[in-house]
From TrEMBL, chain A:
Name of the protein this chain belongs to: Protein-methionine-sulfoxide reductase catalytic subunit MsrP
GO BP annotation list: protein repair
Keywords of the record: Metal-binding, Molybdenum, Oxidoreductase, Signal
Stated role: Part of the MsrPQ system that repairs oxidized periplasmic proteins containing methionine sulfoxide residues (Met-O), using respiratory chain electrons. Thus protects these proteins from oxidative-stress damage caused by reactive species of oxygen and chlorine generated by the host defense mechanisms. MsrPQ is essential for the maintenance of envelope integrity under bleach stress, rescuing a wide series of structurally unrelated periplasmic proteins from methionine oxidation.
GO molecular function, one term: metal ion binding
Organism from which the protein derives: Paracoccus kondratievae
Post-translation changes: Predicted to be exported by the Tat system. The position of the signal peptide cleavage has not been experimentally proven.
Record-annotated Oxidoreductase molybdopterin-binding domain positions: 78-233
SUPFAM superfamilies linked: Oxidoreductase molybdopterin-binding domain (SSF56524)
Hydrolase in keyword set: no
Length: 298, 200
């Protein structure tokens, strides 16, 4: 039997540890692998999925198309040292270390719903910082309108890239106002620990009101630009995946309905729940899209 | 060698094929009860049943070409193989209705009418159902030549079943592509055998 961290740390103990940390004894109580994060008002009070679920059900085609492939094959990814190239329309372009972009002291815990375009969902306690602060560090120039992201491209470390199912490297993008929104974070951890490789180590994007594929993993490049950047799934199948990819129960994927979703971990008879507009974050983000036809800008 | 195998196959009772054919189902039930299915058991159950159905469909289709090309005679087991395929297809559909869609009839009906992969899958299932209910001596006697015509539906059912699999995925994956090519190959073989027979 393979032991995992979830076997070592039962969720109840983990939860009580969080309370413990919150009580202000963080420095003493945090174990070696552990990371702490300030609680956030943006966190949902829904019950997070277990670490076992979050780390063994991943879409990360760089390591294979199966849901457990990333857990099995991502050991070859070398996440340290790691730097992120920030370029394009910024005042201070250059290569930034992960620790410079996301200092441990600045980490916040954001418990977010994640809605996959495949109509399943999870709740994940991320550790990260708002992307806006990171972009401010690089100094966004006034001409910038979009942010483009790229994942590492290295078939040696990412064996799934040997098959050309996607035009590697994986690319994603946001409009600048989406990128600067306080809900948008760069995550370097989850469940009080360093981000596991299969979840996009060492640094990934999390945009909770968009389908999961927008939240690009293992980022090596962030480019500020004045043009809407091409994104991987849109390049592959533009009729099915748009640039915006906002969670929207009224706009179906051409091949399947997006009206409902299955919450992972709810068991054989868990059934389905209604998918919420903007994944339930409408109050915060609907204003970004006023006047836009979301059926056209899917 | 083939004669030897055929002699052995003649002694193998049909119920033994049923028993072997139900092993994947038994393993699935075992894995479900033991919690071996991983993070999303619904998906695993649904997909394993669907895959097994199509593998048995391939096996059923292979019986005639095997006999013609290698003289290996599995004709006695063809009916059982076809019915085992149908059993898995039925379980696959039931898993979708009960576990995946949780009896959301309105959404299921809308989806089946609208989504190509579900239309393909459902058409394939209806065809297999027609074959399964006429898969008995009484039907063969009653239907005569029409029985043979009806049972050619196994080819469109196989193609639709494989398309159902391919169309449900976001990218081209190797397993369903191999299965789809296998079905096309068997279909081509069959067409050649039929034309050869006509010429003779």
């Amino acid at each position: 039997m393979k032991l995992t961290w979830s076997d070592v740390t039962p969720e109840a103990a983990y939860l009580s540890r969080r309370a413990f940390i919150a009580a202000g004894i963080a420095a003493v109580a945090t174990p070696a692998l552990g990371l702490g994060g300030k609680p956030s008002a943006f966190s949902t009070d829904e019950k997070p999925n277990s670490l076992q679920e979050i780390t063994n059900y991943n879409n990360f085609y760089e390591f294979g198309t199966g849901k457990t492939d990333p857990a099995q094959n991502s050991g070859s990814l070398k996440t340290s040292p790691w730097s992120v190239q920030i370029d394009g329309l910024v005042d201070r372009p250059g290569s930034y270390g992960v620790e410079d972009l996301v200092p441990e002291a600045a980490l916040e815990e954001r418990i977010y719903r994640l809605r996959c375009v495949e109509a399943w969902s999870m709740v994940i306690p991320w550790l990260g910082v708002p992307l806006s602060g990171v972009l401010d560090k690089a100094g966004v120039q006034s001409g910038a309108k979009f942010v483009a992201f790229e994942t590492l491209h290295d078939p040696e470390q990412m064996p799934g890239q040997r098959s050309r199912i996607i035009d590697w490297p994986y690319r994603e993008g946001l409009r600048l106002d989406e990128a600067m929104h306080p809900l948008t974070i760069l995550a370097t951890g989850l469940y009080g620990r360093v981000l596991p490789n299969q979840n996009g180590a060492p640094i990934r994007l999390v945009v909770p009101w968009k389908y999961g594929f927008k939240s690009i993993k293992s980022i090596v490049r962030i480019t500020l630009t004045d043009k809407q950047p091409p994104t991987s799934w849109q390049m592959l199948q533009p009729s099915e995946y748009g640039f915006y990819a906002n969670v929207n129960p009224q706009v179906d994927h051409p091949r399947w309905s997006q009206a409902t979703e299955r919450r992972i971990g709810s068991g054989l008879f868990g059934g389905r729940q209604d998918t919420l507009m903007f994944n339930g974050y409408g109050e915060q983000v609907a204003g970004l899209y006023t006047g836009m036809d979301l059926a056209k800008n899917y | 060698m083939v004669q030897h195998l055929n002699g052995w196959l003649r002694r193998l009772p049909v119920w033994a094929v049923w028993l072997l054919g139900l092993i994947p189902l038994a393993l699935l039930v075992w894995d479900t009860l033991q919690g071996n299915l991983g993070v999303d058991p619904v998906r695993d159950i649904e997909h394993r049943l669907g895959r097994t159905a199509i593998y048995f469909l391939l096996a059923t289709l292979a019986v005639t070409p095997l006999l013609r090309l290698t003289r290996l005679n599995m004709m006695r087991f063809r009916q059982a193989l076809g019915l085992i395929c149908f059993t898995y297809a039925l379980c696959h559909l039931a898993a979708w209705v009960v576990f995946d869609m949780a009896f959301l009839w309105a959404q299921m009906l809308k989806d089946v009418a609208k989504r190509p992969y579900l239309i393909f899958g459902m058409l394939a299932f209806v065809m297999l159902l027609a074959l399964a209910v006429t898969s008995n001596r009484a039907s063969i006697r009653r239907m005569g030549a029409r029985w043979r015509q009806l049972h050619r539906l196994i080819y469109p059912a196989a193609i639709l079943g494989a398309l159902h699999w391919l169309w449900a995925l976001k990218v081209w994956e190797s397993r369903p592509v191999v299965v789809f090519c296998g079905i096309l190959l068997l279909l081509l073989l069959r067409l050649r055998l039929i034309t050869a027979a006509v010429r003779r």
